[in-house]
Amino acid sequence: PAPDAVLVVNNIEVIYDHVILVLKGVSLSVPQGGIVALLGANGAGKTTTLKAISNLLHAERGEVTKGSVVFEGQRIDKLSPNQVVRRGCIQVLEGRHCFGHLTIEENLLTGAFTRRDGNAAIKADLEAIYDYFPRLRQRRHSMSGYTSGGEQQMCAIGRAMMSRPTMILLDEPSMGLAPQVVEEIFEIVQKLNVTQGVSFLLAEQNTNMALKYATYGYILETGRVVMDGPAVGLRENEDVKEFYLGVA
Ligand code: ATP
């Protein structure tokens, strides 16, 4: 890993239900302030990798049985999910998971649960998030269950931002969204990256879009990294074109 890596995943193995080996030694790293794409087909192990980092596997009867996860120079693989968030690393789950019966604003406020810095600071951050996501400002008093898929994805990212993270693990933000909306969301992700210095690990099946915004990519196949490199190189790679970009 690069010396400036903020996240280093070192040869992790994950087993579900004590017998199903799903990650067979995955290593990757995210440089400070980077956007790194984790690519691969449905079932390759992207979600499992993200959940291994944020320690969310126990609820799914999954376990990291080998390897380590180092965040900002310290091991986090023995921490609780809550402690991982407090360290500054937060996951936005696939499928967005907004609370449908709460308004957009209430959803955003739930993201501040780890904070102890008072209402004024939280209020200021809420306004800052509305500046990044003008659509959320418009919809702030709507129940999230009645907003569009794109707005719910924005809400999920905005809620993660409310914990003041230095790193966001973003699981398949493009899922089920029109290309134009995906682009809108990735533009905001890039803006958060550049202006707030938040690093991103972005799990995506939408290889094309992910490699447009990421600087580096890893390709997973059945629980192993089969290729990695700078995004530009991956976009030009013939195998990637054939298998993941559909432009053989
Ligand atoms: P997706 O795009 O569907 O999220 P993915 O690349 O993120 O795909 P994972 O969800 O990490 O893949 O799944 C990797 C493998 O682990 C799949 O074969 C899946 O069936 C298996 N798996 C996932 N969760 C569990 C579980 N709780 N118990 C057993 N097997 C699981």
UniProtKB/TrEMBL annotation:
Signal peptide: none annotated. Keywords: Amino-acid transport, ATP-binding, Nucleotide-binding, Transport. One of its GO terms (biological process) is L-amino acid transport. SMART domains: AAA. InterPro entries: AAA+_ATPase, ABC_transporter-like_ATP-bd, BCAA_Transport_ATP-bd_LivF, P-loop_NTPase. One of its GO terms (molecular function) is ATP binding. PROSITE patterns: ABC_TRANSPORTER_2 (PS50893). The keyword Acyltransferase does not apply. Residues 7-247 form the ABC transporter domain. Transmembrane segments: none annotated. It holds the Pfam family ABC_tran. Belongs to the ABC transporter superfamily. This is ABC transporter ATP-binding protein.
